[in-house]
Amino acid sequence: MQTIIFALILSLAGLSSMQALAGNTSDYKFTASKLTGKSTPRYPSNELHRGKEGWVILSYVVDKNGKVIDPIVEDSSGQKSFEKSAIKAAKKLKYQAATLNGQPVQQCINKVKMSFSIHGGSRGASRRFARTFNKVAKHLNKGEIAQAEQLMTKLDSTGKWNLYEDAWYWYLKSKIAAVLKQDEQHYQALIKAIAYEGNHIPNKLYIDALKGLYLEQVKRQYYGDAFTTISTLTPFADKDSNIGKLIKHSQQLKAAIDENQAYPVNGSIAHGQAWTHKLYRREFSFDIDSGKLQSFEIRCDRKRRRFDIGETQTWKVPARWGECTIYVHGEDNTEFKLYEHSPQAVAGGN
Questions:
Q1: Which domains are present in the chain?
Q2: What is the DSSP string of 99-119?
């Protein structure tokens, strides 16, 4: 019997564009790009034989002809073969191009999530995974962290995970990292735990992960991401009284940010990959601590640009470009700070 492979595509393209431009309808009439032709990723044979499932989140540009260009892996379950397959599939997606005042334009912030799952495979945890997972949780509840870490290493080496197990694994990983005060591991594990949008872990745990993620984002001054996380949490406010407190905190935070001067966001380059950051303010500069930065690309709702990075330059983003994400390139092990300056939007520009 032939194995049937499913690759679920969840298109997020165009959402932020419509929201960002809603206040400018008197000057601009923007219509988001529309997906007209889907593309199913090829399931990597090595992962299929291992029974491994996973996911990839991509960002890309839709050009004036409705063609996908310059896809970037934003995050994934960690398998390079899934990432390569997803990129190839994304390039085959077809769109009706976005328009501005009736003229075709690039739409520069588009995201798609591709999930790789095996039809007929297990939709729950295997006995081996469940047994090990429960032992880890038991040790964690008793404060036996060393034993919990040892068993997590055992889970790492099992080599056969479905999407359900992957979601639970990262949630548990986030709890261990929190106890050990491993801030970066905690942050990264939370991102992967919520990537399934609550589909494989109970709402209670999904909400718990989102709350933890918001606090980690605020700690890092990733304010653009933090306010997005609050928007995701808001519909659950009636299920958890602490969400209301976080919403109030975010409102107070936003007011404080708008009154303050420049603030730094720590960045680093590793493994040849771009450092990614969602801008909250519209003016920014770089301060290099060690290593070398080379260039960055800024992708906004309706515009994108690439720049070389100079020593004393400050960049200003026109308000009409919409919300923006920046992708910074440099030598491995480069450490730097990105300063977000005045909260005032800059008028004009191309």
A1: 5-118 (3.30.2420.10), 127-258 (1.25.40.10), 263-340 (2.60.120)
A2: EETTEEE-EEEEEEEEEEEET
